[in-house]
Amino acid sequence: MNRFLVAGIIAALIGIIFSIPLLSDHPASAGTVKKIQFTQTFTSSEDPGLGLSNEQLAMVLAPNNGTIYDGTLTYTASAPVQIVVFHRIDKSDSRGQPAWTVDNSAIYAETILDAGSSGGTLNFAGSAVGIRSINSSQFTATASVDGWIRGVTPVFQNNTQLVPVNSIKISRAQVPVTIPLHEGFYDGSMVYYVITDSSSSDYAGQVSSKQGWTVQTAPLLAQSPQKLLTKAYVFTNGVFGQGTEGFQDDVFSASPASQSYTPITLVVHAKWNVGRTAQVLNSTRDILAANATGKVTLTQTGTILNMPQVVWPGGQMPVRASPDLSDQNAYLGGQILDIDNVTHKYVTFVAHRGWGPDGKTLYYIVTSGTPEGPAKMMGLMNTPALARLSAVARDLFHFSNGVVGGGPFGFQEGISGAQPGDASYSPICKVSMVTWRPNATAAVLENTGDISYEKSKGDIDVGPALVYNNSFIVDCPVIEIPKSNS
What we know:
Elements lengths: L32 E11 L1 E2 L9 E6 L5 E23 L9 E2 L6 E20 L1 E6 L6 E12 L22 E7 L1 E5 L2 E5 L3 E2 L2 H11 L4 E2 L12 E6 L14 E3 L11 E9 L11 H9 L3 E11 L2 E4 L2 E2 L19 E5 L5 E10 L5 E4 L3 E3 L1 H6 L3 E2 L11 E6 L15 E2 L11 E9 L11 H10 L2 E5 L1 E2 L2 E2 L1 E3 L2 E2 L7
Parallel strand pairs: 10-15, 12-13, 14-16, 23-24, 25-27
Antiparallel strand pairs: 1-8, 2-3, 3-7, 4-6, 4-7, 4-8, 5-6, 9-21, 10-11, 11-18, 12-17, 14-15, 16-17, 18-19, 20-21, 21-22, 22-32, 23-31, 25-26, 27-28, 27-31, 29-30
């Protein structure tokens, strides 16, 4: 879930490398110079730069605060492209020159080389190097880099190795998992959503039984700041239907199209009062009006669910162009393989294999994330409100180098800081990066004890995955893989 950190994590989450490498924010080490040599194939994604959503970008060398690259680039591409060299500058120095930014904080001047060419060799020096197409059609490119890194050593992926590495191939590292879709309402229109977690074990059991698919108990969700959550109005009487309590469809107070939306949702019970004629209410406005006129009584339950919306008015989660799964594309192009909201009502996600804190195998899906750059690179909805839920997030450790594998940055699979059954389990994840230090012998780590041990030896660094000083937060619930999928 992490080949992500564009322009900060932008770089070629995660091909996350999601076709991007990641940006880190470690302090510079004066005088550090490292040799870099690699050959890698990239698939472009929508350029995350502001105002460039109609262009495609593959980041070959990621921007990293305090890093300068210089060397030679040889490339070939499936379409005419530009080679773009980025130069980090102060905002006050932009003064109308061509510039690139994802958040108006970090500003990069641009040098355009080989514009309109589909291959060539050139010399470069700058803060980052990318391959860009000025139209919206996706392209692939293979690039070989021979050069030097001066300053901070950035996070790389795939074949860009800075420490001794070997590789690991885990069976069934990615599998499709089909989850029931539920119908609901937002502002008078239909939404379709899944339920993956509940702060209440009783509610988890109730919903699991009804939908025939396991809802995990996530105790940490109970500590969520309720005033910041999306609300789901669940009717406990009235018109019979397919809602969570067996009556009309649930009604949501927000959709992913709004800045206030979060998949973490507070359940509010709505009950028709005696003597009132029940009818279907399909918007928060109608429900609040019915409450104000004494028709309906509303009660906040304290139960909090993870209810990611898959289809909503005017939008839906991206569906991958190909159902084929591999270590190279697991985090590329979206996290959904299929949506059927008409006939059978299901959605098929990509489930990613990892380890629990005790080394137990687990699988998780990814439904949304923030900040915007990493989320877009993964084909996820950017959900800014997730940033407000870091206090109820579990740790998720991903690797920026070391043993090559199926993790989001091209290295070994990740390790979760908590799993279902733990008091600290939550579907919300705060991503941390594990980086093997130069001259350390990288090995496969399978639990949080391994991480603590290697850190105590001084062989790894562990720190938050930051994108311009913002934590990388994702909704990544641990899910149960049905035996039919095994």
